[in-house]
Amino acid sequence: MNTMKTLRRHGWHIVVLAVLLPTCIGAAGQGLKPLVTEINAVNMTVADMDRAVQFYSQVLDFQKVSDAEVAGEPYEHLEGVFGLRMRIVRMRLGDESIELTEYLAPRGRPIPPDAHSNDRSFQHIAIIVSDMDGAFARLKQAKVEYASSGPQRLPDWNKNAAGIEAFYFKDPDGHPLEILHFPSDKGLEKWHRSNDRLFLGIDHTAIVVADTDASLTFYRDLLGMRVAGESENYGTEQEHLNNVFGAHLRITALRAAVGPGIELLEYIAPRTGAPFPADEHANDILHRQTEVFTPDAAIAARKLLSAHTNFVSSGVITESDGRLGFHKAFLVRDPDGHAVLVEER
């Protein structure tokens, strides 16, 4: 039988899943519905919330949706950080959202100054723009830190990426970001609708992985996301976009039924990127967590545990008032160390 412990703290339940047999998954865990039905947001840890909100709202046209301050044992069990107090701001651009988290206590470490785009810890959000020249001019005016040498147009020989324009830069905390412009024959239909906005929304979050097939086992086979596209990118444009000499990438796009996608970036060359830091914690500025919705958090947790997924949370955490947009959640890491917060509404 399964061993479960329920700890009651301040209106919360912390369900600790201790021993699980394969029969726990059963037909429910292998049902027709995918484990993940929606990509909710990407959450980034920041050092100064007011500075971050000003940047995302004034430079990139995000709008603040909510602003909450939370603390207590259940949040500690959820994020794996003892004695925490967090301020969490949700911001929206078009149909998509990000969340920014400032750890008022305890403070974490800044992003290492020698981080590179082919490091396993790399993760960015791709913001779609209606006009690359106008968006780049806005970023120049704001004096953003460049990660690319300048906007790059991917070459026509690359059928799956031809004509895409892209530019990497950094937010005030050093989180990498991308602005992206699709030609008329690429991207979702909504990115081509006429409007007067410069920054339109978030198409995907991109993560560097060591082995695409291992990542597909996690995101496609376990979480139930579908492969939406594949590409192999290399050449001078890709090198200057990623600022990695000799960059040669295998790119796999994944999508759930709703929300932005997740893009897997495997560097075929150079394979010199640093591994994900084993001692990374949610209060470190390097931390990002992709938030996904599941119909049943308990079933999702059992299935992920049976697959030997690395859990950060002590179990399935229940929030009685849903202040952060969910009622149950747990935090895990993918095969490379990227954090995924699995939420049940």
Question: How is the secondary structure organized here?
Answer:
Layout: E1 3-9, E2 12-19, H1 26-29, E3 38-46, H2 49-58, E4 63-71, H3 73-79, E5 85-93, E6 96-105, E7 123-129, H4 132-141, E8 145-146, E9 152-153, E10 165-170, E11 176-181, E12 199-209, H5 212-222, E13 226-234, H6 236-242, E14 248-255, E15 261-269, E16 288-293, H7 297-306, E17 310-311, E18 316-318, E19 328-333, E20 339-344
Walk me through the structure.
The two termini are 28 Å apart. The strands form 2 sheets. Strands 1, 2, 3, 4, 5, 6, 16, 17, 18, 19 and 20 form an 11-stranded mixed beta sheet that branches. Strands 7, 8, 9, 10, 11, 12, 13, 14 and 15 form a 9-stranded mixed beta sheet that branches. The chain is globular and about 50 Å long. Strand 5 and strand 6 form a beta hairpin. The protein has 7 helices and 20 strands. The protein is α+β, with helices and mostly antiparallel strands. The chain has a domain of 147 residues: 2,3-Dihydroxybiphenyl 1,2-Dioxygenase, domain 1. The longest helix has 11 residues. The N terminus is likely disordered.
Oligomer: single chain
How many E-type strands? 20
Largest sheet, in brief, is: 11 strands, mixed
Determine the fraction of residues in helical runs and give it as a percent range.
10-25%
CATH level-4 homologous superfamily of the domain at 123-269: 2,3-Dihydroxybiphenyl 1,2-Dioxygenase, domain 1
CATH class of the domain at 123-269: Alpha Beta
Distance between the termini: 28 Å
Gross geometry: globular
Radius of gyration: 20 Å
CATH topology of the domain at 123-269: 2,3-Dihydroxybiphenyl 1,2-Dioxygenase, domain 1
Element pattern in H and E: EEHEHEHEEEHEEEEEHEHEEEHEEEE
